[in-house]
Amino acid sequence: MSILNSKTPTGDIANQWSEHKAHLNLVAPNNRDKIDVIVVGTGLAGGSAAATLAELGYKVKAFCYQDSPRRAHSIAAQGGVNAAKNYKGDNDSIYRLFYDTIKGGDYRARESNVYRLAEVSGNIIDQCVMQGVPFAREYGGLLDNRSFGGVQVSRTFYAKGQTGQQLLLGAYSAMNHQIHLGKIEMYNRHEMLDIVIVDGKARGIIARNMITGEIERHSAHAVVIATGGYGNVYFLSSNAMGSNVTSAWKIHKKGALFANPCYVQIHPTCIPIHGTNQSKLTLMSESLRNSGRIWVPKKKEDAEAIRAGKLKAVDIKEEDRDYYLERRYPAFGNLVPRDVASRAAKERCDAGYGIEANETGEGVYLDFTDEIKKKGREVAFANGDQHPSDAEIEKLGKQWIEEKYGNLFQMYWKITDENPYENPMRIYPAIHYTMGGVWVDYNLQSTIPGCFVAGEANFSDHGANRLGASALMQGLADGYFVLPYTIADYLSADIRTGKIPTNSPEFDEAEKSVKDQLNFFINNKGTKSVDHFHKRLGIIMWNKVGMARNKQGLNEAIAEIAALREEFYKEVMVPGSADELNTELEKAMRVADFLELGQLMAIDALHRNESCGGHFREDYQTEEGEALRDDENFAYVAAWEYQGADINKEVLHKEMLEYKYIELKARSYK
């Protein structure tokens, strides 16, 4: 084990980033076209990084497995993006955003990175407005804000329920301009399957053309990984079905440390699971918690009747409803952080008060009745009607909701065939974001020199839990305002290096390794599909490394995943060939990585004898059922070093977390 150096600048935290930038080495404009940079992933982090680096003059190769960068999973983000602009005049500030993020992450994030994130957040909004992102605006034309969980101010900028899509279109437009100018060479439908290291530095990748099956060599002076998170290790998650960990895991196996893999976010407002053949879950934006109230019946017999189809939500009287978040957390109510809201929902459902008609009753209500009445009355008054009828109030209130959340309500209606304007939404927590990822220093560089990691793919600025609307903030901050500065410091030594050749032994070895693995799966004589193993892995992960964990379950998960992995290599069947479009082959390669990662996640969760954020150990909780941290023994980032096929032998390295500007204390939202 070693103690990791984060390369955090010294001095006052408010000046660290500006002082650090002032002393970074530069690459002169006339030398930048001598430098090649590979960017893998074209979501908000990768797309913004590729566009910015190309605009600066570097020669960029961008890779995505989708048919277009517009299809990156960032498009699915609904609710908004945070920034400390204090447009609502409710005393927001850079420090308050910094504080909320550290507290929301349960004091397990690096102070310097989080402060920098808060500091550049305002630039993100300005940049995106200049790109034409259609943020919501108030009547007078100013940008509008709303609240998200874990904060007591309104700092979330949004574009209805399509914020991720609109921000991605901004980054995509910037990329397209550089593609048109010949500064970005775009490789759609290509998947990175290995990184190439020459003389200890990242110098290229091995990629597979997913249409033809051709294996390609691509060289560069630096490689940027921006491929998102690994939530699909659980099979069912809110992630796109193609989202995977392969790029991040491949660099891990070549020397990049993987940090805090057990930190996984459970999102509280997902449409409940409805069947064993379901392939993914659908998220309802956290922004809905601004207006909806979450409840379950107070009486078990009412919950049982609802599950049996004998009662509906509207049949439960107001006095018989348990608004449990408002009851337990009066200061924040329905806007507690995601991990807190998720565990509270699980507790009520485990106690028998769930309302979903499935075996476990896993579901609670998100009810907009009160908001419809409140907003309907406000709109009527604004229109000059001081004595509106109940019917008019309801009509105007529904119109207000439709204007604010219309596409989200439409999506819910189409998926469930239930009218959310008339009946409460049914929701339940599900796997969403991952706070763990590749360990990076302050410059976003991994432990492989020349390999940088941005956005959700790195171990992030969010600690053990991400506050809502901060994923988009981190992705764009990394790509637009951090990486272009820090990567130049590294690249400044390469202006005389020249083109990196691809006919070297290192490229030969990496390509052979990839082809050997592809051929193994094609030639394996198994009898079971890839999904068969992925679903079984997901069940183990959800039941034993999911919303609540304990020592016995984690030990069982480690052993069960190891056995499943062994069976996978013996019994998996991949039809077709490697030299063609073959989605089953793609999945086999990804699930092979998920099996290894899943085992490491359980190992990481087992070693961390505390509860913090999304990592909740049932054997470490307060009398009130809240997370019980151990700051004396676990105030560190756990970064794991690959040691070979036996995941149990990974070596733990620690980055000790020091808090100079925020006091460590128990999180309370009451």
From TrEMBL:
It comes from the Bacteria. GO terms for cellular component: plasma membrane. It catalyses: a quinone + succinate = fumarate + a quinol. GO terms for biological process: anaerobic respiration. It is a peripheral membrane protein. The keyword Coiled coil applies. Belongs to the FAD-dependent oxidoreductase 2 family. FRD/SDH subfamily. This is succinate dehydrogenase. Keywords: Cell membrane, Coiled coil, Electron transport, FAD, Flavoprotein, Membrane, Oxidoreductase, Transport. It is found in: Cell membrane. Its EC number is 1.3.5.1. It comes from Faecalibacter macacae. Residues 36-472 form the FAD-dependent oxidoreductase 2 FAD-binding domain. PANTHER family: SUCCINATE DEHYDROGENASE 2 FLAVOPROTEIN SUBUNIT, SUCCINATE DEHYDROGENASE FLAVOPROTEIN SUBUNIT. Pfam families: FAD_binding_2, Succ_DH_flav_C. Transmembrane segments: none annotated.
